[in-house]
């Protein structure tokens, strides 16, 4: 097996882990139980991995981290946007 394919497969699997949370948060419009720090810290780390991947020219590293950054950035945005909705639902 070519090591690039292994990297692409590993990146696809670990990146796919973010999708269910993003979809659930979007559907329920509720992000109360999500800590803002987890996706923020992940984005910082993944940004560093992305820069590293760009420097060494590693396609799997670049692709996996770029997509993950998009997913976790969406989660951060939803956490901020749905904050007001969470407050009104908990008071009702």
What does this structure look like?
It comes from Geotalea daltonii (strain DSM 22248 / JCM 15807 / FRC-32) (Geobacter daltonii). The protein has helices at residues 3-16, 19-28, 37-56, 59-81, 83-91. By secondary structure, it is an all-alpha fold. It has one domain (3-91): Monooxygenase, CATH 1.20.1280.290. Helix 1 runs parallel beside helix 4 (59-81) and helix 2 packs parallel to helix 4 (59-81). The termini are far apart.
Unreliable segments of 5+ consecutive residues: none
Give me the Rg, rounded: 16 Å
Tell me the total number of β-strands. Answer: 0
Mean residue pLDDT: 89
CATH topology: Monooxygenase
CATH top level assignment: Mainly Alpha
The total tally of domains equals 1
Order of helices and strands: HHHHH
The 3D shape can be described as elongated
Individual helix count: 5
Biggest sheet statistics: none
Distance between the termini: 56 Å
Tell me the helix content.
over 70%
Q: Give the amount of beta strand, in percent.
A: under 5%
Structural class: mainly alpha
Mind telling me which CATH architecture this is?
Up-down Bundle
InterPro entries: SemiSWEET, SWEET_rpt
GO molecular function: sugar transmembrane transporter activity
Protein name: MtN3 and saliva related transmembrane protein
Keywords: Membrane, Transmembrane, Transmembrane helix
Could you give a quick summary of the protein structure above?
This protein has one domain: Up-down Bundle (Monooxygenase).
What structural keywords apply?
Monooxygenase, transmembrane, 5 helices, MtN3 and saliva related transmembrane protein, mainly alpha, 92 residues, SemiSWEET, 83% helix, membrane
């Amino acid at each position: 097996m070519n090591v690039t394919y292994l990297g692409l497969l590993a990146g696809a699997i670990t990146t796919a882990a973010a999708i269910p949370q993003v979809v659930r948060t979007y559907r329920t419009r509720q992000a109360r139980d999500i800590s803002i720090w987890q996706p923020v810290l992940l984005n910082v780390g993944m940004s560093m991995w992305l820069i590293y991947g760009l420097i060494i020219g590693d396609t799997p590293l670049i692709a996996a981290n770029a997509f993950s950054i998009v997913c976790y950035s969406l989660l951060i945005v939803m956490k901020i946007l749905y904050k007001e909705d969470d407050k009104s639902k908990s008071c009702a």
